[in-house]
Amino acid sequence: MQAGVALVPGLGVQAGYVRTRSLFTVEGILYADTTPRFAGGEGSVIVSGGFGGAIRPLGFPRLIGTADYPYDFDIGLRFGPSLTFTRGATQAEKNQQFSLFLEPFLRFSSRLSSGRIYFVEAGTLRPLFRAGFFFVF
User: C-alpha 21: how far from its chain's center?
Assistant: First the structure.
């Protein structure tokens, strides 16, 4: 499981399931993002659910036993539905609340000295920059 917060261009949260393998990941992620009026935004809320995966370029050297990096780097793609809710929306805007997205992303992850695994992620879906922790069950 992963959970984190997000910034730019708003405030958000991200939570989901990431199944890691040596060479790839399979994942399902929920995003929520808002651009509050007090911060200069339009007051909209976006809720999205993405499914996809990532390639792990550093996984191959690990798999054959030639390297053991203390960090990882993933290059991935997610797709799914997105709903936008805007206060005071016109009927035309309400009719355009639902959309589909395709999001390429990059994720860096590493282990802290305490053993917790953190991640930093950049994508094309709002919010653009996300960071948080992986929880292993």
Answer: 18
Given a cut of 70, is residue 39 above it in pLDDT? Answer: no
Residue 46 has pLDDT above 70, yes or no: yes
Helices (H), the chain: 59-63, 91-95
HSE-CB of 3 using CA atoms within 13 angstroms: 3
Position 94 confidence tier, pLDDT thresholds 50, 70, 90:
low
The beta strands (E) that lie in the chain are given as 2-7, 11-20, 24-34, 45-55, 71-85, 98-111, 117-123, 129-134
Q: Which residues touch 85 (CB under 8 Å, ≥6 apart)?
A: 44, 45, 46, 47, 97
- pLDDT at residue 131 greater than cutoff 80: yes
Q: Which residue has the tokens 């993405």?
A: 50
What distances in angstroms separate CA 17 from CA 1, 11, 106, one per listed residue? Answer: 4, 21, 16
**What residue spans define the domains of the chain?**
2-134
Which candidate, 66, 40, 63, 53, places its Cα nearest to that of 104? Answer: 53
CATH annotation of 2-134 = 2.40.160
User: What type of residue is 86?
Assistant: T
The predicted pLDDT at position 62 comes to 83
